[in-house]
């Protein structure tokens, strides 16, 4: 075996490599030179026959040739792949993203549509629109709204805790403290948001649902103001006067607390499927903000007071659309969703 054999092998590889036009041919060339029974392996087996004084140079040359062939094969492979992609692009019918969208396909979730309507109504009444975080601290979600550790009211909202001690907010009230600090002591703010509770699902219960919270703080605010704003919102949303009633409720963050019911807008109180024949629909828990909550929000409760309400948004959407199962709202079921385009 002589050095000339290496040069011959290199020349023959260069010629073969030049002729390759697809991946299969390349694989054949690879096997011919680098395969177990390939030409490089063949040269190596004859290493013994090389005169002792040439062994060093011979070894270096074979290794260099082997590396050259390996690198060249990788390069050719990349080159072929690039060419293949270019070919595919050339043969693909291109899509023009600048063409106008066909607006007859798809529709907004009814929750999105009604949220926009309700937010606009409150905006027209002078409310500022805010939002909150979905991951919250225990302090914001509970303590700052007068629900200290071990308070029984915590059990009313089964919480998804995170490993770092934070939680997925169980109520939009979690933003109250920040909003009171940022806007108080005279403010009218609403803050819609997605909330999470570890609940069993059924037609009226989701574990991921939406609330819309409102706070009004000022001097001499009364329950009459609260009723006024709720009725004004309902009138604008249902396009007619809706009677409301207050029942006693309990929330640690309001005192007194109420459950506000609306006269069923579908049967005008006569009783129907939507209101379960009671004539009333449970609409919105609310009340006068507890002095402790004002204090924790940096507001002097001797000088200022206010009210807060927490509209269960998905339930409002169900009432407005006659949807009988809350789970549709998170289902992304296009057949269901597309029906609401014409209903609102
Ligand atoms: C609260 O979350 C209070 N933070 C509301 C509040 C705010 C009261 C300000 C007073 C002042 P509650 O847990 O009742 O309260 O929930 C409020 C509304 O969210 C309910 O009336 C209901 O419409 C809706 N809701 C509660 N749980 C679920 C659920 N699992 N699925 C869908 N909607 C729900």
Q: What would you note in describing this structure?
A:
With 344 residues, this protein is of the alpha+beta class. The chain folds into two domains: 2-91, no CATH class; 108-343, Bira Bifunctional Protein, Domain 2 (BirA Bifunctional Protein, domain 2). It is 39% helix and 18% strand. It contains eleven helices and nine strands. The protein has helices at residues 3-19, 23-34, 39-45, 55-91, 110-124, 138-141, 176-183, 223-238, 291-296, 313-321, 334-337, and strands at residues 128-129, 135-136, 167-168, 187-196, 208-218, 244-249, 254-263, 280-289, 305-312. The strands form two sheets. It has a seven-stranded mixed beta sheet, with helices on both faces. It has a two-stranded antiparallel ribbon with strand order 2-3. Helix 1 packs parallel to helix 4 (55-91), helix 2 (23-34) packs antiparallel against helix 4 (55-91) and helix 5 crosses helix 10. The protein starts with a helix and ends in a 7-residue tail after the last helix. The mean pLDDT is 91. It binds adenosine-5'-[phenylalaninyl-phosphate]. Residues 157, 171, 173, 197, 199, 205-206, 209, 211, 213, 251, 253-254, 285-287, 308-310, 312, 314-315, 326 line the site of adenosine-5'-[phenylalaninyl-phosphate].
Number of structural domains: 2
Largest sheet: 7 strands, mixed
Order of helices and strands: HHHHHEEHEHEEHEEEHEHH
Count of alpha/pi helices = 11
Class per helix and strand makeup: alpha+beta
Helix content: 25-40%
Question: What is the CA–CA distance across the termini?
Answer: 89 Å
* Strand arrangement, major sheet: 1-4-5-9-8-7-6
Radius of gyration: 36 Å
List low-confidence stretches.
none
User: CATH superfamily assignment of the largest domain?
Assistant: Bira Bifunctional Protein, Domain 2
Assign the CATH topology of the largest domain: BirA Bifunctional Protein, domain 2
């Amino acid at each position: 075996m002589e050095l000339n054999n290496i040069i011959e092998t290199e020349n023959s590889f260069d010629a073969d490599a030049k002729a390759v036009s697809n991946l299969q041919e390349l694989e054949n060339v690879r096997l011919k030179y680098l395969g177990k029974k390939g030409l490089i392996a063949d040269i190596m087996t004859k290493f013994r026959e090389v005169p002792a004084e040439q062994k060093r140079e011979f070894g270096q040359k074979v290794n260099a040739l082997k590396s050259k062939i390996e690198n060249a094969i990788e390069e050719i492979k990349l080159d072929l792949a690039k060419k293949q992609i270019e070919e595919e692009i050339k043969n693909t019918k291109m899509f023009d993203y600048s063409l106008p969208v066909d607006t007859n396909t798809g529709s907004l979730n009814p929750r999105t549509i009604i949220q926009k309507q309700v937010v606009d109504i409150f905006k027209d009444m002078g409310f500022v629109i805010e939002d909150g975080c979905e991951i919250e601290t225990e302090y914001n979600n509970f303590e700052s709204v007068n629900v200290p550790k071990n308070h029984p009211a915590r059990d009313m909202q089964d919480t998804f805790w995170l490993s770092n001690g934070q939680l997925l907010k169980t109520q939009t009230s979690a933003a109250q403290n920040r909003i009171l600090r940022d806007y108080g002591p005279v403010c009218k703010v609403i803050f819609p948001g997605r909330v999470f509770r570890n609940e069993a699902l059924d037609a009226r219960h989701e574990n991921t649902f939406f609330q819309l919270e409102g706070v009004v703080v000022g001097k001499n605010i009364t329950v009459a103001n609260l009723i006024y704003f709720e009725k004004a919102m309902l009138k604008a949303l249902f396009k007619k006067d809706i009677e409301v009633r207050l029942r006693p409720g309990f929330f640690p963050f309001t005192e007194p607390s109420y459950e506000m019911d609306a006269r069923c807008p579908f049967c005008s109180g006569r009783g129907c499927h939507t209101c379960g024949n009671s004539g009333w629909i449970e609409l919105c828990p609310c009340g006068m903000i507890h002095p402790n909550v004002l204090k924790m929000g940096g507001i002097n409760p001797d000088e200022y007071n206010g009210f807060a309400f927490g509209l269960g948004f998905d339930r409002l959407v169900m009432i407005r659309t006659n949807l009988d199962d809350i789970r549709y709202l998170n289902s992304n079921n296009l057949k269901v969703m597309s029906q609401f385009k014409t209903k609102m």
